[in-house]
Specification:
The chain is an alpha+beta fold. Helices cover 51% and strands 20% of the residues. Among the domains are: 127 residues, Beta-Lactamase, CATH 3.30.450; 81 residues, Beta-Lactamase, CATH 3.30.450.20; 133 residues, Heat Shock Protein 90 (2-Layer Sandwich), CATH 3.30.565. It is rod-shaped, with a radius of gyration of 60 Å.
Amino acid sequence: MMLKKITSLEINDLPIRYKIIALLLIISILPSIGFGSLISIAVDKIIEKQATKHTLQLIGQANKSLESYVENMQDISYLVSFNPEIIQFLQDGEATNNQYQMQQFLQGFTTVNSEIAGILMINGEGNYISNEMYTRNIKSLIKENWYREAIENNGIFKIIGHPADRSVRTHVNYKNSEIVSGVRAILDPDTQTVIGVILIDLKLRVISEIIEDIKLGKTGYLMVIDDEEEVIYSPQNSLVDKIQLSWFKKGSSGTFSKKIDGKNMQFIYRRSSFSNWTTIGVFPTNESVMEVQQINFYVISFLFIVFAFGIGTSYYLSFSMSRPINQLNDFMNQVKSGDLSIRYKGNRADEIGMLGRSFNTMLSQIKKLISLIEIQGRQKREAELQVLQSHIKPHFLYNTLDTINWMARKKGALDVAEVVDSLSQLFRIGLSKGNDLIPLANEIEHIESYLKIQKARYKDKLNYSISIETKLSNISVIKLVLQPIVENAIYHGIKERRGPGHISITGEEHEGNLALCVKDDGVGISERRLVALRENLAVNFNSLEETKKLTTIGYGVMNVQARIKLLHGEPYGLYMDSLEGKGTTVKILLPLN
């Protein structure tokens, strides 16, 4: 946590020029790197997908060609089996005088179809007819595997791959690895019983010609295997002996990668549903990677250009933005040293230009304020002198009042003495040794002295009651907040009504604040005038001088409102409510602390 805080402080301490350079580089380089990475990944996937698709298309074309040869072998088997002489030979079990014609008939197929190495017809007794094929020993051919596989397939043509362990040879003497055999049992048209088998050999040369013409990249190749993992065709130096049939899923096609002899090889295969042969494309994965690497080179070159351009642009923009800011900083340092005559000189229309013009305006305002403070300082000193001089008269006055009070009591004029004593207390609390805040108990004592003087004047016309919670006695309040309110209640409320009136003064804690309430049962205030009074009380008081302009209520009440607002702010102050003919209530809201 401490390391993180130090790192943050170090970043904040960097000059704004370096921050702008870093920001511009981040917003230009990082998106470019992200975009380049996405392009590289997308191209890699697209190339891989296209390579797989292209290879599958090539394999599909190879499979079609292979299927056409296998299908031709199947068609030949059907055409041969429909020949009447062949059927008669298979049914009778012996060669007839037409054996030569049948051989010529079979020779015609091998002549027209050069991919056919030989055709052999054999009946159930082991007698056979062939154009190019013969047996090399006296062993019966019907005991060989290829014959049994044809019988088991019950008339359906079957490719059995390279011949193995058979006694049949061809006049050309093809090796077993150079041909692929196909067999089919021939059924009796009437009884649907097997009457013989046809054996057809296909030259592997035609398969190799098809496969070799298809190139997969620089070193890739195709191979063909059957469903029993026997290799039908594979080029020299292939990986055919290391391929496992379990690698290939049961589906018709697919792709996978394997590491063989330390090399990553890509396998793409497609199985022929007609021949059950699987054609496999094999090529190193790095051949497709080379194309991706070439594209990555272009992407990296593009990023390098963006990076170089971003550095140059960021340096230029940071200099154009930081230079006027540094200039303003120099101006502020000169102002800090006391030079207020400095000014920003520039015609920029951007935020920096606006800041410079605001800087000039601020300096002008500061000079005006300094002049105003000097004037106010002189006025304050003059006011303090006047206050000191004015204190002489009140002190002399309430000292004189104490003398009159003593003389009145000596001569038995107790009512005069009480009024003079109240007046003396009024002056003493009003001065309060120059303090603006006094305990609430002193403020209540002050208003009691005032009410005693007014009671001596109005007799039974004026009655009053004071109820303050004891726990609030030591709360500090602005002095002389009650007297102007009570004075208004007497002169504008009680005095104007018929008969005696009553003023109630209460104090309580209300929602965490001190609420003083002055309530009278005088003549009240009309609704129109009440609205005007409330508007005057709601004005924005900037100083006590503002109250002199508002004479609707009276200077004393406005003075109280202004002093409360200036000292405590909202929501404190006076709140007035009245009903014409019923009386008026003034609530004074003050903070407890």
